[in-house]
Design brief:
This protein has 168 residues and is of the alpha+beta class. The protein has a single domain, classed as FAS1 domain, CATH 2.30.180.10. The protein has a seven-stranded mixed β-sheet with strand order 2-1-7-6-5-4-3. Helix 4 packs across helix 8. The N and C termini lie far apart (35 Å).
């Protein structure tokens, strides 16, 4: 029964509304690393600029077996005015926020158990709570984001697109 629920959730996640559908569809046959996949999608310009400013882009491109809960450009645009600019000036705070979006293992949607699960992130002070309610998956720190596109595979891990920037 649990396997059927997991399969049903995985199926629901993979047909969720696509934030960056066209770019990801092109990558299906031979994905690049997380940074290349995100770059080709065209909807993660702010995330990639922030990762570069924080000195994390190379690590995202070369670290194996990672899961990135990736806020789209729309998610960054929803932050209060001046937030992104302020973070770009405070690279320590920016790195803390970005590393809270990265799990040091691959978590595919089918691996997410129903209920709440705490997972460690690269920011050891900011573990995520991943919640699978059987209909959707959310990730939480001090705020909550919904996974809108799951299981975008990359050569070094997986991306799950989220609709908000998680703040530790």
């Amino acid at each position: 029964m649990t396997a059927l629920k997991t399969l049903a959730v995985a199926s629901m996640l993979t047909v969720s509304p696509l934030v960056a559908g066209a770019g990801f569809a092109q990558m299906a046959s031979a994905p690049g690393n997380v940074v290349e996949v995100a770059s080709e999608a065209g909807t993660f310009e702010t995330l990639l600029a922030a990762a570069t400013a924080a000195g994390l882009a190379d690590a995202l491109a070369t670290t194996d077996d990672i899961t990135v809960f990736a806020p789209s450009d729309e998610a960054f645009a929803a932050l209060p005015e001046g937030t992104v600019e302020g973070l770009l000036e405070d690279t320590d705070a920016l790195a803390a926020i970005l590393t809270a979006h990265v799990v040091p293992s691959v978590i595919m949607s089918g691996d997410i158990a129903e209920g709440d699960t705490e997972v460690a992130t690269l920011n050891e002070d900011a573990p995520l709570t991943v919640t699978n309610d059987g209909m959707s998956v959310t990730v939480s720190l001090s705020n909550t984001a919904t996974v809108v596109t799951a299981d975008v595979e990359a050569s070094n891990g997986v991306i799950h697109v989220i609709d908000a920037v998680l703040l530790p």
